């Protein structure tokens, strides 16, 4: 695991990659937004609500309120969400990695691993819900709970990543302004 994280840190935590990762994130966000508007019927909950269902009953309520067309739209959006995960996790990992690159290597790798783990949890969440949406009548309460737990952990780690970026960005700006005024 440490070798993989070290490789990813060396490959992704580069300032020169920020424009690409930021553009990819923005394009996938636009794609998922407009696809959602085009394919999801009115009254059908989105993939965020689905991801936070936690119980088979709540999952089935979403499926029943969406109908067959809505379930198909949730499947389409879940597949597109795989690209979105790469987009936002890639951008956040790139930005955080570039900001913490000057820290002690072990600390930088630990901080950098937070958005990467969030991405893995996002892939797990999507995979679980895709299997459940393929046959909603045979949905497993345990699988729905596991998918929702992965979604909650992913969202929490993503929020922590954003807070770390704000913290280290503020520190970098402060450091730069002190250096400029000295």
Number of strands: 0
Output the number of helix runs. 6
Rounded to the nearest angstrom, the radius of gyration is 19 Å
Low-confidence segments, ≥5 residues, pLDDT <50?
none
Structural class category: mainly alpha
**What's the average pLDDT?**
93
Distance between the termini: 43 Å
Please outline the major beta sheet. Answer: none
Shape: elongated
What share of residues is helical? over 70%
How much beta, percentage-wise?
under 5%
Helix and strand sequence: HHHHHH
What is the total number of structural domains? 1
Which key features would you list for this structure?
0% strand; mainly alpha; 182 residues
Describe the structure.
This protein is mainly α and 182 residues long. The protein has one domain. Helices cover 85% and strands 0% of the residues. It has six helices and no strands. Helix 4 packs antiparallel against helix 5 (105-134) and helix 4 runs parallel beside helix 6. The protein is elongated. The N and C termini lie far apart (43 Å).
Q: Quick summary of this structure?
A:
The protein has 182 residues and is an all-alpha fold. 85% of the residues lie in helices and 0% in strands.
């Amino acid at each position: 695991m440490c070798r993989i994280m070290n490789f990813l840190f060396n490959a992704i935590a580069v300032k020169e990659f920020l424009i690409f990762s930021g553009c990819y994130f923005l394009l996938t966000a636009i794609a998922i937004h407009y696809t959602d508007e085009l394919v999801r019927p009115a009254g059908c909950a989105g993939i965020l609500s689905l991801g936070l269902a936690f119980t088979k009953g709540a999952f089935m309520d979403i499926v029943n309120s969406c109908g067959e067309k809505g379930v198909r739209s949730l499947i389409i959006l879940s597949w597109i969400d795989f690209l979105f995960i790469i987009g936002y996790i890639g951008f956040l990992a790139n930005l955080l990695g570039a900001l913490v690159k000057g820290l002690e290597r072990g600390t930088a790798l630990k901080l950098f691993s937070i958005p990467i783990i969030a991405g893995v949890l996002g892939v797990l969440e999507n995979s679980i819900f895709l299997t459940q949406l393929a046959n909603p009548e045979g949905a497993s309460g345990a699988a729905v709970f596991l998918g929702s737990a992965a979604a909650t952990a992913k969202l929490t780690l993503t929020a922590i990543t954003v807070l770390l970026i704000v913290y280290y960005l503020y520190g970098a700006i402060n450091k730069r302004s002190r250096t400029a005024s000295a």
